[in-house]
């Protein structure tokens, strides 16, 4: 998904002067955590690991009820916005008013349907119920209704949890390296590896090569929000650059799938086939315009929320990415941020944050706890997060990011351009080649794996 600049004129690696001045900046140090998964687990109250089919089902019913309510209200009242029922100053206003009402319906229904996505996601982690069969059936039904190949996605998603922010094993939002973007090699005369010293002339060259303009960032952000999810499924966009170009989640082939994944991928494909067939049948019966406003617009909102939250969970100039030699499960789990979805300062920010966090079951607010143990159901994740944060504060570790808003996504898009080709722990650099943090190792010898605790 990151724009490639290999087709552009590459920035020159030759200095403009024999000894170009380098501008040095003070940046915060990042103390690479040595806390173990066992230590993190021990901080979580035991009842947070308990899964209740009854309680999970209540949230599922609530989400369906909200969607049904919004649909009923839209079908019952939007057609009544006409001259016989409402007086507006101009005939053209009736069409505009109906369009605005359908837009509101799409937004709220999409937000509620994102709650269903989160429940299906929990089924993929076996967090909905203690029964594997119940999780598989409900997850497949919910995800299929939202255009997600449930079992195929689950294979990749579990790999993501096992290798979060691993530079060569992560499954999505893999940062582009300097060489992959066609940038000149690291020039020690004009910059340093840490990204704290960069000459003025090199800053200008990098900025030009990376198209550091607000309009370019807005364009790529729109591409992320509108096409990010389907491109991820169809082309493995954002995955490892070593994967085949057209690797996708519908063909059970390597490297995404092993031979034993065949059955799950085929069942997932069946769900997608039924989903597409249902859409076409609905268009035949009700017409394209009705299906578009009733289903497709909310579906696009779900995809938008999914990309917004996952992008901001795993992308930020303050989040580390690890080479294999320094990666541990706990370091990966802590290389993600908790964020308040559409929150912010003031009463309005508190209200919007509470609404979005509640309707999406805290998937954005409690993401670190979810990565530490993905079997914790969302209704226990709030308490688990508080307990984990108290433990992390003892080591000076803070995992709360800025609120997940559109403006924050634009900031992150502009600040996270590339990582270096070398380094045990790497941070994104911006279009001027500057990094926001410098890694510091306080101790070695950590041996940790959370695979058996998932």
From TrEMBL:
GO terms for biological process: lipid metabolic process. It holds the Pfam family FA_desaturase. GO terms for molecular function: oxidoreductase activity. The chain crosses the membrane at residues 58-79, 99-120, 218-235, 264-283, 292-312. Residues 1-24 are annotated as: Disordered. Residues 1-16 have a biased composition (Low complexity). Residues 101-398 form the Fatty acid desaturase domain. The lineage of its organism: Eukaryota, Fungi, Dikarya, Basidiomycota, Agaricomycotina. InterPro entries: FA_desaturase_dom, Fatty_acid_desaturase. Keywords: Membrane, Transmembrane, Transmembrane helix. This is Fatty acid desaturase domain-containing protein.
